[in-house]
Design goal:
Blueprint (H helix, E strand, L loop, with lengths): L3 E9 L6 H9 L5 E3 L2 H4 L6 E3 L20 H4 L4 H17 L6 H5 L1 E6 L5 H14 L8 H5 L3 H10 L5 E2 L7 H14 L5 E8 L4 H9 L30 E9 H6 L6 E10 L12 H14 L6 E5 L6 H15 L6 E3 L2 H4 L6 H15 L1 E2 L16 E2 L5 E2 L4 E8 L3 E9 L2
Parallel strand pairs: 4-5, 4-6, 9-10, 9-14, 10-12
Antiparallel strand pairs: 1-7, 1-8, 2-3, 6-7, 8-15, 11-13, 14-15
Helix pairs in contact: 4-8, 9-15, 12-13
């Protein structure tokens, strides 16, 4: 089986608009969750979100939309596309992949997921129709919100002519994009792929929908940084976030032939369905368990070789409990795998969460440090025996790290990485 390595990473997060600043701030215990404007939250009970800082708000590491597209072109796309373009640019720069030959462009895949896509653009289009009539819509209305346009814009900008795809599997989509890209490489349909997820749907409609489902945290509006608290007994829902996490992965033979420097190896991928409920996974975490087991089996290793887990862990009661049971089932109730829940710092990036979680798992391997789970004061008793990395980073030796992503509809996905030596 063709070995696959990671050669580039790019991120736009509520912590910072690049990988290294996001990572250093995560390790420092900083939070990207803040109070949302009143015109966004209105009378909704949830009033906080993980918002990407602008360059004006954060001159050191904020997001500069003007560096991605001109002001004129920004009006033609929704924000999730901007985030994807920026993260892809960073990942491709690190991978040093800018193919000049047509043969190379034909073998470059672009697989970028999103759970929601251009929800704000759709909302604005409906508002335009209601107030001014359908004839006032822009010709760019539909391309601005279609989920596959994130991948499309990356492909067009860089001239990539290999397979193009856009998983739309809710909060598992980012991991599935990585897995789909790996399968294309192993099927010899591509040599290299840009893959991951992007999301930017913090608006009144999406917040209202999740609030109606009682999924969002509402008890920490007074202290936004404390609201996302995976595995903690006082958790009361997830905090919506935004951003993008993108990898460049490629066949090891391709990377070595062009002199690329691998960062990590993608050694396993598993995906399953719960067939249980539209929004909730089963209490025993069966689908999550099977996804992790498939990834570990694909790598040909024992569960006890995996020393670190970047959990899906969104800070909801049902979701966290299901993942706890899955972790115990896979790794044993007496095995101290170090579990981190980085959504505690960023909020839940939905379709982008898997890409970002994979990046944090890879960085943990690179730097030999497990990132902290913020706000974990009293762990859920159901997690007794699990080694949660609470509130501070932990230096540790690890060869393998796994990252999870689970979503509405009962979809589960896990990606397993090996440290590159």
């Amino acid at each position: 089986m063709e070995r696959i390595v990671v050669t580039g990473m790019g991120a736009v997060t509520p912590l910072a608009a690049n990988v290294e600043a996001s990572w250093s701030r995560l390790l420092a215990g900083r939070s990207g969750v803040r109070r949302l404007p009143d015109d966004v939250v209105g009378e909704l009970p949830a009033k906080i979100g993980g918002v990407v800082p602008s360059l004006g708000e954060d001159p050191e590491a904020g997001f500069d939309a003007d560096a991605v597209l001109s002001a004129k072109d920004q009006r033609k796309v929704d924000r999730f596309i901007l985030f994807a373009l920026a993260a892809a640019e960073e990942a491709l720069a690190q991978a040093q992949w800018k193919p000049a030959l047509e043969a190379d462009r034909l073998r470059t895949a672009t697989i970028i997921a999103s759970g929601v896509g251009g929800f704000p653009a759709i909302t604005e289009a409906v508002r335009t129709v209601d107030l001014r009539g359908a004839r006032r819509l822009s010709p760019f209305t539909v391309p601005s919100f279609l989920v596959n346009l994130a991948a499309g814009h990356i492909s067009i900008r860089h001239g990539f002519k290999g397979p193009l795809g856009a998983p739309v599997t809710a909060c598992a989509a980012g991991i599935q994009a990585i897995g789909d890209a790996a399968r294309l490489i192993r099927a010899n349909e591509a040599d290299i792929a840009v893959c991951g997820g992007t999301e930017a749907c913090i608006n009144t409609v999406s917040l209202g929908g999740f609030a109606a489902a009682r999924s969002l945290s509402t008890g920490f509006n007074w202290a936004p940084a404390q609201a996302s608290r995976p595995f903690d007994t006082s958790r009361d829902g997830f905090v919506m976030g935004e951003g993008a996490g993108v990898l460049v992965i490629e066949a090891l033979s391709h990377a070595l032939a062009r002199g690329a420097k691998p960062i990590a190896e993608l050694v396993g991928y598993g995906t399953t369905a719960d067939a249980h409920h539209v929004t909730s996974g089963p209490e025993d975490g069966d689908g999550a368990r099977r996804a992790m087991q498939i990834a570990i089996a694909q790598a040909g290793i024992s569960p006890r070789d995996v020393r670190h887990l970047n959990a899906h862990a969104t800070s909801t009661s049902v979701g966290d409990l299901g993942e706890i049971e899955a972790i115990k089932s896979v790794f044993g109730r007496d095995f101290a795998i170090a579990v981190s829940a980085t959504k505690s710092a960023t909020g839940h990036l939905l379709g982008a969460a898997g890409g970002l979680g994979a990046i944090f798992a890879i960085l943990a391997l690179r730097d030999q440090v497990a990132p902290p789970t913020l706000n974990l004061g009293e762990a859920d008793p159901a997690g007794d025996g699990i080694d949660f990395v609470a509130n501070a980073p932990r230096p540790m030796e690890m060869e393998y790290a796994i990252s999870n992503g689970f979503g509405f509809g009962g979809v589960n996905a896990s990606a397993l990485f090996r440290r590159w030596n």
